[in-house]
Amino acid sequence: MRLLVTGGAGFIGANFVQQTVLERSDVTVTVLDALTYAGNKASLDSVADRIDFVHGDIADLDLVDELVSGVDAVVHFAAESHNDNSLSEPWPFVQTNIVGTYSLLQAVRRHDVRYHHISTDEVYGDLDVDDPAFTEATPYNPSSPYSATKASSDLLVRAWTRSFGVRATLSNCSNNYGPYQHVEKFIPRQITNLIDGVRPRLYGAGHQIRDWIHVDDHNRAVWTILENGQIGRTYLIGADGELDNKSVVRMLLEAFGRDPDDFDHVTDRPGHDQRYAIDASLLRTELGWTPRYGDFRAGLDATIAWYRDNESWWRPDKAGTERAYAQAGERTLGTE
Ligand code: NAD
Ligand code: TDX
């Protein structure tokens, strides 16, 4: 199989490409990535001589058409992915997440190429503590410019499938953790703060709940859907990993041998979603997928070890990321 992977220099895409090259010798991989602030070619160093890398924009219709004409399938990870950035400057989210997806859909339509669309549970909005988890039937109700543009892209995929017969599947996954995640995101930000001796920074009271899944489990689910999923169908991906943010920060502090209350409460995110939770029954029962990383604490320890061992990968982004948070108005509200 000849595969085009968009966003393959980003967090989930790079892990997907590495896993694919290591485990599937029958697949050839071309990566298309614009190398925005979130893309890092070094994330593909271990497989660089076994893939083709194209530096370019998914919204470039001619480039995308040419690349898609030479493959059997596209897995579309590329996106602007950070909620906080979408609150500061929404336009790149509209351009990449909506216009970029349009560009890929037109190309897979023209060349009749199989397409898998990577999306997020955030398209469903948020849940109260007692609500049942999201299912494939939950109505869309996005909160942030990021999740609204991801929801828009999902709807384009559904329309191109129904109206033009595009052979597409979609997956909406919960929060990923693991190696190669940008230091702007919650878990890597706190790990790298702790390595630097800086206190973790919890938005508001820290009662928001996220449903954590290891990135390798997400990517195995993507392969399962690509190979066996029903065309036109949406699959939710999650590993029953619900935890509130404060508990995650306390676990990280304990892993560093620090007092679990040694963190700061900082300015909350406007419109902050309260809770995400995934019911992945369809994926488990119809396609037989099960996660391999059952123990979040063990996965977290391995992730901490990766950031300790790979400081040269994240260090160049750290100071600028913290400066951007300060410039966006993040203030310490108090300590525990
Ligand atoms: P990321 O921000 O780490 O990586 C995004 C990648 O896309 C980068 O390499 C970037 O250079 C590239 N990119 C951005 N704009 C581009 C453009 N116009 N053309 C080509 N490449 C471009 O994101 P991630 O966390 O790896 O997320 C990947 C996908 O998974 C996204 O679609 C995201 O919505 C989805 N997702 C993420 C999570 C999560 O927890 N991180 C959970 C569910 C779904
Ligand atoms: O410093 C922080 N302190 C903090 O308390 C940061 C960066 C975040 N948080 C909170 C906000 C969220 O409740 O932690 C939680 C996780 O934050 P993010 O890492 O920004 O993730 P989230 O907003 O939940 O979105 C993520 O999961 C869904 C990804 O970034 C999205 O791309 C994906 O679609």
TrEMBL record:
Entry's EC annotation: 4.2.1.46
A GO molecular-function descriptor: dTDP-glucose 4,6-dehydratase activity
Domain (NAD(P)-binding) ranges: 4-294
Keyword presence, Cell membrane: no
UniProt keywords, alphabetically: Lyase, NAD
CDD domains: dTDP_GD_SDR_e
Reactions this protein catalyses: dTDP-alpha-D-glucose = dTDP-4-dehydro-6-deoxy-alpha-D-glucose + H2O
SUPFAM superfamilies (UniProt xref): NAD(P)-binding Rossmann-fold domains
Family to which this protein belongs: Belongs to the NAD(P)-dependent epimerase/dehydratase family. dTDP-glucose dehydratase subfamily.
Name of this protein: dTDP-glucose 4,6-dehydratase
Native organism: Nocardia aurea
